[in-house]
Amino acid sequence: MAGMRPLAPRRRRPAAGAQPVRRPAGPQAAGATATVRDRIVGYLLRHLQTALASLGRASRTPFSSLITAGVIGIALALPTGLYVVLKEAQQLGGNRDQAAQISVFLKMQVGETQAQDTAARVRNWPEIAAVRFISRAEALEEFRRTSGFGEALEALPDNPLPAVLVIQPRPEHAQPQQAEALLERLRALPETDIAQLALACLQRLAAMMELARRGVLVIASLLGLAVLLVVGNTIRLDIQNRRDEIVIMKLIGATNSFIRRPFLYSGLWYGLAGGLIAWLLVSLSLWSLRDPIARLASLYGDGFRVPGLDIHTTLALFFLSALLGTLGSLLAVSRHLGAIEPG
Amino acid sequence: MIVFDNVVKRYPGGQEALSGVSFELQRGEMAFLTGHSGAGKSTLLKLITLIERCTRGQVVVDGQNLARVTSARIPYLRRRIGIIFQDHRLLMDRTVFDNVALPLVIGGMRHQEIARRVRAALDKVGLLDKEKAYPVTLSGGEQQRVGIARAVVHKPTILLADEPTGNLDPELSETIMRLFERFHQAGVTVLIASHNLDLIVRMQRRMLVLHRGRLVGDEVPVWQE
């Protein structure tokens, strides 16, 4: 057999070009620090290599990898989208100034000038900060613009809408009790048909929000569980396919954590890819819904912005998806890897 | 280096694979393990690498009583042993280089050092020019040499081989055996299980003969032309 060399034991030569380095601390201490740092760097490098190798392995079967990531993405997109919309809607309940607003609907027979007089009179009350007067014509115009029932209104013989005074109490009169007293005083006006605290309406809205929030939480938990199972099952199949390889690794001295590592990184990548797909899906959905949402938002005044994925939500989504992926993989690995032993 | 003291291995079915086997292999010694198939050769090797544990008796490897090695410590025991299999057990989706590098990667060695050692090991088995090839493209003998390079790349103190020449023609078999001899000359303890009697006798080394789980012979054979 040509090309074989005698097996002379090799001695380690000192590295060529190695320069003695002057260090402030004692030589031993400095040496120890260097080894610790070398070890940490080496450890991180090995993890990086494993992570990239796992990514490379997934990219060699792009179709099935993409399907797995897609399923995860869809499962994550639903709760994410609901959460984003809900978060914006919750801003409404939080607006205190609006909460104390009082709407006074004037009687239908009250004329335009009389209504204006009432508005001016009320504006002078000490407990009131501002009054916005909406005439019957303005109310009709606004309703026609925002409700989508414009044509239906055309069919009516006359304007069915009353004039409205939107009253903002001074902050010291915005507390529930004082607001209630003010409400009574407004109801006592002869021109008043109905006077309503926005608070009641908002409280109802807040209660609905809470219900919706819990609902989203339940959906998110269930779909999170689904992601765990999807990743777990994918990794389980991966472990089965690489059974021979795992046996060989164990035979030549690989520890369980060494064998586990690439599978955990696979889970991490599946999760992250799923998170990215979820992000894209939610962004696309919000983009396609932006016009109806903007119209709805305008109905609620300034408190409602068109929802979008801000940086915090995006980071949280990626973090959670990566976490779910890794956990799902951990489930599969701890259940199936131990069973594979050389025999 | 390897001590068997009255070792019994009984499998769950009640069948006794080894019955009262005792021998000692000195550090740096080279020996063959022979006998018919089913005589217990593979079981004996499995006990050394803790793929199986003995039912009774005691196995000591490199001064370590294997009964006291916990499952979590088994990988570290195996890293001191190089194992060669009849069916090579190479990873088919990785290059020759990556296959040979595996024990070093597992040991957490630095990349530059790995490349240097892998090339040295491939050089020893005469496959330096095949490092980028995949195992499928190699002949049986070449695959076995890759397996040997992988077994020695991390400089183990013990080398075990289970029928390393099982599928090879006589000429190739002899080449492989001579290769083991050179590792033995470099100070490695070598134990080779083989039923290729002609070849073993020609090698003029200590020969442990198993028959139905019992050690029935332990001597250096006499070779007559």
Physical arrangement of strands within the biggest beta sheet of chain B: 6-7-8-3-9-10
> What is the quaternary state of this protein?
heterodimer
**Helix and strand composition category of chain A:** alpha+beta
- Counting DSSP E segments of at least 2 residues, the number of strands of chain B comes to 10
The radius of gyration of chain B is 17 Å
In short:
The complex is a heterodimer of chains A (343) and B (225). With 343 residues, chain A is α+β, with helices and mostly antiparallel strands.
Task: Spell out the blueprint of helices and strands.
The complex is a heterodimer of chains A (343) and B (225).
Chain A: H1 27-60, H2 62-93, H3 96-99, E1 102-106, H4 112-123, E2 128-134, H5 136-147, H6 150-155, E3 164-169, H7 176-187, E4 192-197, H8 198-241, H9 243-251, H10 256-288, H11 290-299, H12 311-336
Antiparallel strand pairs in A: 1-3, 1-4, 2-3
Helix pairs in contact in A: 1-10, 2-8, 2-10, 8-10, 8-12, 10-12
Chain B: E1 2-10, E2 16-25, E3 30-34, H1 41-48, E4 56-61, E5 64-65, H2 74-78, E6 81-84, H3 96-106, H4 111-124, H5 140-152, E7 158-162, H6 170-185, E8 189-193, H7 197-203, E9 206-211, E10 214-219
Parallel strand pairs in B: 3-8, 3-9, 6-7, 7-8
Antiparallel strand pairs in B: 1-2, 1-4, 4-5, 9-10
